[in-house]
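agent> Task received from the user: take the single chain below, predict its 3D structure, and emit structure tokens. No templates, no multimer pairing.
agent> Plan: (1) validate residues, (2) run structure prediction, (3) serialize to tokens, (4) report one or two observations.
agent> Step 1 OK, no nonstandard residues flagged.
tool_call: predict_structure(input=
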Amino acid sequence: MQKVMLCDDSIEVTQLLGKSLREQRINVTDIVHSGKTCIDLIENGIPPDLLVLDISMPEMPGYKVAQYLKKTFPSIKILVFSVLNDYDAVKGMISLGVNGFAFKNIKPRELAEIIRKILSGQEYYPPEFMFSTDEIETIKQQKISWVEQLTKKEIQAAQLLANDLSRKQVASDMGISASSINKKMERIFKKTNQKTTVGVINFLKKVGMIQ
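)
tool_result: status=success, residues=211
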């Protein structure tokens, strides 16, 4: 019987989800609550056939887990299971090679059907976004900017702004000029497809890049 692992930082969510999926005859063999634990267990044990993965987790967010596993364990199918209803976030995860993306507001029975579909070799993406097969294939070939191109310095700047520092304070902390921080923010706006600092902070928090 094909094995399914759950990875979500919410203990309550995974306990309820694991119980519900087992009632739907899904073989949930492992439940973990961090990206690092997920990778450690896979590397040192028997890899699952499918991983149900949250995006927003502390320490190691879901996009990093997916990025690593698709390079080192490409046979593992990944279903992203998230509250994050954001077009750019979904595109970013598709570009990493995940096999499906479902929102957490669906019923366990629906999730079980999606899992079976992916285990059978198909894919699943939210019908709200109306992705065509050609669009999915195009996205898979793209390098999504927030996933691939945000630099450590740009993420650091966003984190400092999220800590309620002004741009002037961020520039001082990073040892750069005010004009440099403004240019850095313009690049961040473009890469995240956001128009405001608040939008950038909210988006990067949701995908787990900053706290």
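agent> Step 4: summary for the user.
The chain has two domains: 4-141, 150-206.
agent> Done.
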